[in-house]
Amino acid sequence: MAKYLFKANIFAKLSEIVEADSEKEVMDKIRNQKSFEINQEVLRIYPSSIEIRKIKEKKEENNMELKETVELMNSEDYKERFVAEYHQVEIRYEKLKNFCNKIEVETMLGKEETKHDCPLELLREQQKYMGLYLSILEKRALIENIVL
């Protein structure tokens, strides 16, 4: 069973996460909920104000963990090693970006900063160049017909 986000902007913005097997089942469940106080007539009159979308799980199918790249790194095929390298840099880039963002938010909120030995400016510079490297790898992948 998947999770769907139901949103309606009829008289007030309403939203709820619903577990269901289909969008139709989401609507059926919403229609039967008294907490929304939306009658079927209102749902029928304003169908364009309703949005139902599947919520992606935290780890998407194409997201890898660092340990999952080891086999690709040891491949004889350079394209597989290329894919592994891309994913390794991407994983490290995202972790560094999240770490830097966390430090910045803690600073803005006046909270005690997460321990870090390097100045934030140097970490951001590293993040910048990692992003540029990812961009170059993505362009190469297009040129060399490599699916990342």
Number of strands: 3
The parts where pLDDT drops under 50 for at least 5 residues are none
Distance between the termini: 28 Å
Global Rg: 22 Å
Instruction: Characterize the main sheet.
Output: 3 strands, antiparallel
The helix fraction, in percent, is: 40-55%
Mean pLDDT across all amino acids: 78
* Overall outline: flat
- The class by helix and strand makeup works out as alpha+beta
Strand order of the largest sheet: 2-1-3
Order of helices and strands: EEHHEHHH
Q: Can you offer a commentary on this structure?
A:
This protein is an alpha+beta fold and 148 residues long. It is built from 5 helices and 3 strands, in the order E-E-H-H-E-H-H-H. The protein has a 3-stranded antiparallel beta sheet with strand order 2-1-3, with helices on one face. It is flat, with a radius of gyration of 22 Å. The two termini are 28 Å apart. 8% of the residues are buried.
SSE layout:
Elements: E1 2-9, E2 13-20, H1 23-31, H2 40-45, E3 50-54, H3 70-73, H4 78-108, H5 120-143
Antiparallel strand pairs: 1-2, 1-3
Task: Please give a handful of descriptors for the protein shown.
148 residues; alpha+beta; 3-stranded antiparallel β-sheet; 5 helices; flat
Q: Can you give me a brief rundown of this structure?
A:
The chain has five helices and three strands.
